[in-house]
Predict the structure.
Amino acid sequence: MLSDILPTGFECGVLNGKISPGSTVAIVGAGPVGLATLLTAQFYSPAEIILIDLDDRRLAIARQFGATQTVNSADGRAVEKVRALTGGEGVDAAVEAVGLPATFKLCTDIVSPGGVVANAGVHGVKVDLHLERLWSQNISITTRLVDTVSTPMLLRTVVSHRIEPKLSDYTPLQARRDHKRLRHVLARGGDRGLEGDHRDITQGGGQWCRRAEDFSRKST
């Protein structure tokens, strides 16, 4: 977690998203990197942190980890819901933490004029950039490959319990089960594409990833 997931959320999402006190933030994807972005965004005291995902169980965990609002995007109305939550303005920072064309477009649809789209997801196919709509909005789009320069600081925050990136109801047996499921889903990804398996990852293997810290604690 501290060698990759947490610094990815912090460096690629929070720092590149230029999250600041009083700002409004939307994180698209409540998986491991999205939750890491949520945890570390709170260092900068944004006024609102909106988590967007397809799965209500992930969104419930996001609430536990500090999200002020959650949006289930399964009905295709995520843009409308985020606009309603922000008085029609959109968000100052939209963090893409999935790596799919649809989630990148969602970020560009909900960012406010002058805002930042911070891409933390790993994209395997091309995405569309609608400059015909965005050219006059003064937005920034940032990308970054995590270099873990923040790991020593993040390690201290975990040790001091400044952030608590774990759940308490996960067992090693459940972790082994979900680990096998994750490996199966990823193996299929080469043939079917990750987009087709997104819901499988959400409901199975992704839970293993985001609870890895708790599994390690219980196992030791």
